[in-house]
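pinned: reference chain
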Amino acid sequence: MRKKSFITMMAFLICASLILAGCSKSNSPVSNPEEEKEKEVVVAIYRDGAMEELDAATYNGPHFLYKMIYEGFVEDGGNGQILPRLATSWDISQDGKTYTFKLRKGVKFSDGTDFNADAVIFNLKRWVNNDRHSVLTSVNVESMEAVDNDTVKIVFKNGAYPILTELTYPRPVRFLSPASITEVPGDVMGKFTKPVGTGPWMLESYTKDQEFTLVPNPYYWGEKPKVDRITFKVITDGQARVLALQSGEVDILGGDLIGKIPMESFLELKNSGAFETFTKGTMCSHFIAFNQDVAAFQDKNVRLAMNYAINKKSIAENLFDNLGLEANGLYQTGVPYTTPENNYGFSNDKEKAKQLLEGAGYTDTNGDGIREKDGKNLEFNFMLSTEEFPEWKPLAEFVQSEFAAVGIKVNLNILDKNGYEDATMNTKAFDIVLMRTSSDSWVPHGSLLEMFTILSTSNAAKVWYDEGLYNNIIKTLNTVDETERQKNYDTVFKFISEEALTIPIYYPITSFAVNTDKIAGFEIGVNNYAPIEWQKLDVKE
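pinned: its structure tokens
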């Protein structure tokens, strides 16, 4: 009897264990390491992401990160298209001053809080009517209100034609979660805590000056990313970025605002067969700006002479092996409202340059190869930074030799990005400086304001200030009639060209090298501020 009971009990235990095993199998499938492996893309970036400062209402950190994390009412679709984003539609009054936006419903920030009209007003209050943003026509606001939970009405002080375009910019016109701002009494900006937006990506981790990782926003309303994370590795040196791609440390290299490929390395990568290379034209221009407080530059003949001294064709064809174009004016062909008659540069003519300098009173009296006037050498400090644009060093060295050929001595001063930005935006601590224009939806309107308006940060213009020029720029931006606007732009561009207020030298391209053995779906983005179609990136199985 005891034996029978024992057998019965054993049978029960075996059945129970089988049942439990079956339950365990149905709830916890056997893990497959290959199936669970996350898809990660690693990108080289030339600078820190400044995540602790990446407030949507500021200018801190790389432009493109704002577009990955934050969204605005509208987005730049390229070729003049303005696409709906957090606004599904909008109405503009006949005088161009009142904009009524219908908001996309059901959108959440990446922290799970709701995006609505109140969140829009909260964000707008942090940047409108702030002199820091005076280069925007959309900063001047008379009133704004949340009509209902899904409708916002903004009345601007002027019916400037670029307002809607400006609302596509990466910053400061995008929306962050009000929950990411700690209230500070008397300060509309409050205290920024972390970047939280409605965009397709959100911050996962950040190690300052080393790397940061973005992962998909689980609440994103639009097209979902195909990869699980994008890690950006900070590598400030251009050649070190190339080595990182070659060693497999990173998968993607390039992009004007990410980490440009040095010119001498691009062809090497292209010809190696180990990587796929991609190029695309830009609407950006590289040029030399004068510090107008330097006495010599008050003489137009000196500015003209320095324009004639440089062989721009040789820069594009010989120095950069036709990766880009010679500059024929401050803006590239194709920038709205530019024409060959209103936007032009000066051909290379060193004899004419010498004649202009002699006419301005600069001669080489002691035979040292440097012209002088009133006992003072025609000598300038030439400032640049190579972190964002590695090609600026050979470009500056070429320009240095061109100036020397006509009796002008320039001393190269290479700064890191922070020092460069401080000098150009705040202290004006340079004689001449290599600069770039803004690009894409920023040109020409935003670019003109950025360069030829008195900035609150320095009480000077970034490039040059002339009251008549400034007034004509403002007049042009507020011109509703298209024909009249073109005439006004003709006046603006011709003045910049005729007065030689800059030295246009090179029209760059944007370039990438990609490890396509691993990466699939790579496409260059619509503009420099959205340099890669991040959502289309995938990792091959």
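why pinned: The domain at 286-509 is CATH 3.10.105.10 (Dipeptide-binding Protein; domain 3). The first strand starts at residue 40 and ends at 45.
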